[in-house]
Design goal:
single chain, Collagenase (Catalytic Domain), binds zinc ion, 279 residues, four-stranded mixed beta sheet, alpha/beta
Length: 279
Amino acid sequence: MLPFVETFWPVYLTALAMIIYIIVDKVRRRTHRKRIRRFDFPLKWIKILEQNVPLYMGMPYDLQEHCQNLVMQFIEDKLFEPCGGIEAVTEEMMVTIAGNAVIPILGRPTDVYRSVRTILIYPSTFFQKDKPEMGHRQGEAWASGTVILAWDATRGSARDMRDGKNVAIHEFAHQLDLEDGTANGAPILKNGNQYAVWAEVLGGEFERLVAATAKGQRTVMDDYGATNPAEFFAVASETFFEQARSMQRKHPELYKQLRNYYRIDPARWNRPAKISRKQ
Ligand SMILES: [Zn+2]
């Protein structure tokens, strides 16, 4: 063997193993997607979307079809774990969570939150003994690939579009924000030259929300968005989808930035006729 090859063979082997892994992973994902497309979306699942995901009811037909496909990929790909006394994860839980979680990626080239592996479902708000300062939580998004959701808040906030809140969209917007490694309200943008405008528009809107919240003034966005820029992006994303027309009217520049980012225009979707506040 040549001395050069002898010295570096572990490097070659590692590189070869990485290449094989990438190829196998690509083939696996492609086969997986083809398999999903072969199955029709279950009627029972459509009923769940109709009942628990009013945003699905309002979107155009081609997006509904795309939504169904992403829901199937999401459910196939993620591990749903019951926590805090929930005995088993139901189809309603999986389809409702997936149906809302995929809304932010409907317009984007996507690998369906590849880094998210596990969804932990609690029956209601949860409390971490080691973090008492955080109080009772409806959801959390971890960089390690876990999302935690309180089932009652997830379903209730999705069903009620008037509140502008959607716990699943909020937590999955955090996951998009985390794609560059940090949750700071600046997700990965298409072009590097978009960051300056993003920072100017979202930074300005964040400051205005902080000022309005300090004065006790209500805005179209929940005051929780005034916590920090990461929470602002997550809250603004909830409002963007649930209160699209109000946001477009009252915060046109913010709406424009989010429309460019999500590559979708929910202000043009229909408002579903029936909106339920029931849990
Ligand atoms: Zn948050």
